[in-house]
Amino acid sequence: VSKRLLSLKEIPAQTKDGVRIKLLGNIEFPEEVSQCIDRGADGVGLYRTEFLYLNRRDEPSEEVHYEAYCRVVGAFPNSPVIIRTMDLGADKMPSALTFGAEPASNPVLSLRSLRLSLKNLPLFKTQLRAILRAATVGDVRIMFPLVSTLMELRQAKMILADVVEDLEEQGVEFKRDVPVGMMVEVPSAVMMAEEFAQEVDFFSIGTNDLIQYTLAADRDDPNVSELYRAADPSILRMIQHVIDVGNRHEISVTVCGEMSTDPLFSPLLIGMGLRQLSVTSHMIPRLKELIGNFTLEEAEEIASHVRNLELARTVENYLRGEMMKFA
Ligand code: PEP
Ligand code: MG
Questions:
Q1: What is the average per-residue pLDDT within 224-237?
Q2: Ligand 1: which atom is nearest the Cα of residue 87?
Q3: ipTM over 0.85
Q4: Which of 68, 109, 115, 314 is 20 to 30 A from residue 142's alpha carbon, by CA?
């Protein structure tokens, strides 16, 4: 990143006509928080805590969780830090935990992520305790991954309430009213967004998984990469629906999948109504510069043109053409 771009650190991301866009960073390890701060992030939009399991055969203790979270939150005390509960299984640390279960023939459709947490309550509660304790240090928010049904969300929230009660009884210092949000990354959650919006404080759209589950195309399989495209109109319509529902219910909506880091999609996503993106931190200065080069009206025109396109390829080509104007 050039000096010129880094000098953008102090100025907030905003469109040419002054519409504020929040750019948050995605992190996997606590050390990465300094890169977010150095590049002028508005907070951490996705902390992938499953990386605590990397190179580890045993379960991290509550203290290990707590220390990792405090390092992030303590470094960034006045900005939101969205801690996502463990998203283990499938593509991430598949062998870290098996819990004696038979290997799944379809790991991506099996016991992973929140499903795994809900089946292993001691592990889930350990993490939630650590998050609530670390929340005393700053502006922590909890996010549940791979929520597929309302029942799962309610179960997860119930367990969180149990943990609150335990901490209270034990006289442990913690924060009570931590905002609770969910990843929207399974098509069922998109279809039920209206109901979900009444039970969470925020949505974060995980396009990496949403594309995989919507187009039935493995996110890591080059044989189907032709199908796996963020620009597919089915994906864009889903994102639009979630943004609209979120705006109507006045809860924040972020996109935190790789799509949000790709400059090609910045004008489109903002034109669709998104005001917050969680991205790979090294791209923050470049995205800030790009966003400053178009107006909200221009972004909205792009979004409205794209609504009529039928193919991923047509969308991509159109966006590439539009980008030339803002580069
Ligand atoms: C996603 O699915 O888009 C996402 C951000 O989460 P992950 O890549 O960790 O599955
Ligand atoms: Mg995901």
A1: 98
A2: 9
A3: yes
A4: 109
